[in-house]
UniProtKB/TrEMBL annotation, chain A:
GO cellular component, one term: dimethyl sulfoxide reductase complex
Biological process annotations from GO: anaerobic electron transport chain
Alphabetical UniProt keywords: Membrane, Transmembrane, Transmembrane helix
One MF term in the entry's GO annotations: dimethyl sulfoxide reductase activity
Record field: transmembrane: 41-67, 88-107, 127-150, 162-183, 189-208, 265-286, 292-309
Organism the protein comes from: Candidatus Thiodictyon syntrophicum
UniProt-listed Pfam families: DmsC
Name used for this protein in its record: DMSO reductase
Keyword Transit peptide: no
TrEMBL record, chain B:
Name of the protein described by the UniProt record: Ferredoxin
Organism name: Candidatus Thiodictyon syntrophicum
Keyword annotations: 4Fe-4S, Iron, Iron-sulfur, Metal-binding
InterPro entries per record: 4Fe4S_Fe-S-bd, 4Fe4S_Fe_S_CS, ET_IronSulfur_Cluster-Binding
Domain 4Fe-4S ferredoxin-type as annotated: residue spans: 4-34, 64-95, 97-126
Highest taxon of the lineage: Bacteria
One Pfam family recorded for the sequence: Fer4_11
Molecular function GO terms recorded: 4 iron, 4 sulfur cluster binding; metal ion binding
Coiled-coil segments: none
Length: 325, 240
């Protein structure tokens, strides 16, 4: 497939935003249970704003994918059938709930409704945070299913796609939370950093599995089934037009195998070992800037990862355009 | 229920592209049009077509066959493009099974083209909406036309009658009989889309090629000459 930068930015930006929100809310819940020090309202409010900005940036990026962006309001119409529709519905819901969560902290709506078991103070921010968490996980599933739900793209059609989108979102979000905590001189750097490392390692397992799976996929469709001629040797001689077409532009990445290998190596290095080493170094020397660099490096790696995700997928329609491939 | 479809006889198609040009002409000036053509007379021309004829070579020289292969939207009975469309712009007509795009609702997200394994959908780069074969819905449903003209433009244009058109759900229709009697098949059956369009296979033919027929004995340039000469007198030395 041809990697579209609008979609690459959409999926990586909202992933980081979602992960950042989950990190903030995890911090709040742990603080309620006295596992972690309680933070001031500003930490949650500014953090939520940051998550919201990332989601908004992703939303704006997504419009560049549309031929007719002014008609985007029609996109939620088929939420009962299309994963893309579902994503379009759940994204603003998640944004609204994260905004409400941030506002609840900023405006001090933290008077408990009631207290559960002597320690869990249920206040508006907790309820909103819980609702936003559900929306964020639903958004992870919808975004990934847009790709994992395409019936004939074997490289995408796997539960690993959902796992990867979710874990990469969590990993980059927790690294961003760690960077944010480091920037605001907060003690949570280490906690977020450790979770960031755990999610990064989990993502390494699932992404490596999907790479292994894709490298060993045997295509179900061949040129023989595509045109229905049962002969061992079928070669395409003409594609029906002398020039290019939508089909030759949309379904081919047009890069050399060497470039692909380079991007693959690049994202494997930038997403996994580099942030881990930077975080370890930050922990050892107590640096406040290294966690920020770690997030930046991983995010660039994630852009490359998403590019490769698209380039790696071989669409069956290419069987009809072999003279281009 | 009616399911209109094309049945294409690969045994007859000679790859003349008459269906391609008549399709383009009819649809660019009709309900679906205009169908953009960019740089038509320059380098790298590109454009939107509903129907393309591709050419495949089967076998290895000298035992080869050329298969001209026309392909348009197959109007699947289980259209994956309709399933994934977020706006409902892609739809399948309940009365005759034709899969269509409502150009006023399409947002140009290209998701349906990803979901189509056949590559039958093409974005119109000027109108920025998804376009595809309509089976000439404006012709086949136009009751003011005489009945023999209520057929897609490609079917009317085919000089060899390689294209049949009709209801594949009606067991007595011309297309159903052709599919039944001549082993009509569907493309990419493993995808489970149940395309309504069918193809009629090429008849098996056998020829024997004598290796000597492949060489011209009096070839002055020895271009096709496969034999190794050891300086002996050849036909070229003795003929004029």
């Amino acid at each position: 497939m041809h990697p579209a930068f609008s979609v690459i930015f959409l999926t990586t930006l909202i992933g980081a935003g979602q992960g950042l929100f989950l990190a903030l809310f995890t911090g709040q819940v742990h603080a309620l249970a006295n596992f972690l020090p309680t933070q001031g309202a500003a930490f949650y409010a500014v953090g939520s704003l940051l998550a919201l900005l990332l989601l908004a940036a992703g939303l704006i990026a997504s419009f560049f994918h549309l031929g007719r962006p002014l008609r985007a309001w029609r996109a939620p119409a088929r939420w009962h059938a299309s994963w893309l529709s579902r994503e379009v519905v759940i994204l603003p819901v998640a944004m609204g709930l994260i905004a409400a969560y941030g506002l609840a902290h900023a405006l001090g709506f933290t008077t408990p409704f009631f207290t559960l078991g002597n320690w869990l103070r249920v206040d508006p921010s907790l309820v909103l945070g819980l609702a936003a968490t559900l929306a964020v996980f639903a958004l992870f599933v919808c975004t990934a299913m847009v790709y994992a739900g395409v019936p004939f793209l074997a490289e995408w059609r796997s539960p690993l796609t959902v796992a990867n989108f979710t874990l990469f979102g969590l990993s980059s979000g927790f690294l961003l939370a760690s960077a944010y905590a480091a920037y605001s001189g907060n003690a949570l750097v280490a906690v977020y950093g450790v979770w960031g490392v755990i999610f990064t390692l989990m993502a390494l397992v699932t992404r490596w599995s999907s790479l292994y799976r894709n490298d060993h996929l045997k295509p179900k469709s061949t040129v023989q089934t595509a045109i229905g001629v049962r002969h061992q040797t079928v070669v395409q001689k003409a594609q029906g037009a002398t020039g290019g077409s939508f089909n030759t532009r949309e379904f081919f990445h047009g890069r050399s195998p060497a470039t692909l290998r380079l991007v693959r190596l690049g994202f494997l290095v930038l997403v996994f070992p580099v942030p881990l080493l930077l975080l370890a170094a930050a922990y050892l020397i107590g640096s406040a800037t290294l966690p920020i660099i770690a997030f930046g490096a991983q995010f660039i790696g994630l852009l490359a990862e998403r590019w490769y995700f698209f380039a790696d997928a071989r669409h069956p329609q290419n069987l009809y355009y072999q003279s281009v491939a | 229920m009616t399911q209109l479809a094309l049945v294409i006889d690969l045994n007859v198609c000679v790859g003349c592209h008459a269906c391609v040009t008549s399709c383009k002409q009819w649809n660019t000036s009709g309900w679906a049009g205009p169908l953009v053509d960019e740089n038509p007379y320059d380098a790298d021309p590109t454009g939107t077509f509903f129907n393309r004829v591709q050419t495949f070579e089967v076998g290895t020289f000298p035992d080869t066959e050329t298969v001209h292969f026309p392909k348009s939207c197959l109007h699947c009975e289980e259209p994956p493009c309709v399933q994934v469309c977020p706006t409902g712009a892609s739809y399948k007509r309940a009365d005759n099974g034709v899969v269509l795009v409502d150009y006023d609702k399409c947002i140009g997200c290209k998701y349906c083209s990803w979901a189509c394994p056949y590559g039958a959908r093409e974005v119109d780069e000027q109108q920025r909406v998804m376009k595809k074969c309509t089976l000439c819905i404006d012709r086949i449903t136009d009751l003011t036309l005489p009945e023999r003209e209520r057929r897609p433009a490609c079917v009317l244009a085919c000089p060899a009658s390689a294209r049949l058109f009709g209801d594949v759900h009606d067991p007595d229709s011309e297309v159903s009989i052709a599919i039944r009697e001549r082993g009509g098949y569907q493309l990419l059956p493993e995808c489970g889309t149940h395309p309504a369009n069918h193809y009629l296979p090429r008849r098996k033919t056998r020829i024997y090629i004598d290796p000597e027929e492949l060489l011209r004995a009096d070839n002055p340039l020895h271009k096709e000459d496969l034999t190794t000469y050891q300086g002996e007198e050849t036909l070229d030395d003795v003929t004029w």
